[in-house]
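Structure tokens please, single chain.
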Amino acid sequence: MASSVVDQALEKRRFWERPAAVDLNARQRKVLQRLVEDGDGGFLGDLTSEKYQKMTGAPKSTATRDLSDMVSRGLLWTDGVGKAVRYHANVPGWSHGADRVA
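Here you go.
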């Protein structure tokens, strides 16, 4: 049990040390912190563009741009298509209960 807690803490730390995580805007950082802190599969209902908008107050176009940026940097991965697309923190070993396509 203690080793899994330590492993999770190290995974989270490694995630934030990645160069892609360095120059995020405040909205992106806020949402990623929430996803990473909630852990593998811990963010209820997964992250959607609509949830990102509600969490950050960003308009749809900004939310889409922010999320696409994080996907292209490898910080998030997606599953689903169109309105059903879900975003997940790209932490090695985390599956979020989804079949990983990325």
